[in-house]
Amino acid sequence: MTMEEEKKQRGRPPENLYAKYVAGKEEQIEQYCEQGADLKGLANLLGCGLTTLKRIKKEYPEFADLIKVSSEVADDAVISALYKRALGYEAEETATEVRVDPSGATQTTFVKKVKKHVPPDTTAAIFWLKNRTKEWSDSQNVKFDATQPINITIAPYKSKGEQQTGDEHRDTAERETTESLRATD
Predict the structure, then answer these.
(1) Which of 13, 61, 82, 111 has the most CB atoms less than 10 A away?
(2) pLDDT tens digits, one per residue of 66-122
(3) DSSP structure class, residue 155
(4) Which residue blocks in the chain are alpha helix, DSSP H?
(5) Using CB atoms within 10 A of its CB, is residue 182 exposed (0-12), middle (13-18) or buried (19+)?
């Protein structure tokens, strides 16, 4: 046996990870993902490590698609619930009351159905708007043109006792920045 052949035989033999961990469990994986499972939970279900699961996803696109499509069901349910919570909704509650007469001989059961209004949730509305509209988004689109000069304004340090008005603060900062930029030229 040559040295090159000996090197090829070292280590673990290559194995089909899809066949070992996934094959025959596709329906179970689909149901688990539809219920909101993350990759870590899915790895536990399949009895493999997270790194192995990520490797299977990378090597088998059909497995990655199965996870993606199945997870969309859970994502859609969350989107729907967030939307409902942001707008407020009506919910029906059922309360059961059992009354026993003083002698203890008879019981009367009352079932009350009460419509309850759940008011809109401001946090849910803001979250929805930030993720769905550009006007409410926290992200900023910054364009940089390397041919244009850059103006940097640095506010001077002031102790707790010292305070300046907004205009004084801005004027001082601009003057100091301009002076420091001239000094570097």
Answers:
(1) 82
(2) 999 999 999 999 999 999 999 999 999 988 888 888 777 777 788 888 899 999 999
(3) P
(4) 3-9, 17, 26-34, 39-46, 50-59, 61-87, 122-132, 166-184
(5) exposed
Phi, psi of 161 (to 5 degrees): -75, -25
Residues 43, 49: Cα–Cα separation, whole Å? 6
Cβ atoms of residues 65 and 98 within 8 Å: no
For the chain, percent of residues with pLDDT exceeding 90? 44
Distance CA 57, CA 48 (A): 13
H, E, C per residue of 39-68 = HHHHHHHHCCCHHHHHHHHHHCHHHHHHHH
The candidate with the shortest Cα–Cα distance to 94, out of 118, 108, 110, 113, is 113
- pLDDT(172) > 70: no
Q: Which residues pair with 116 in a beta bridge?
A: 91
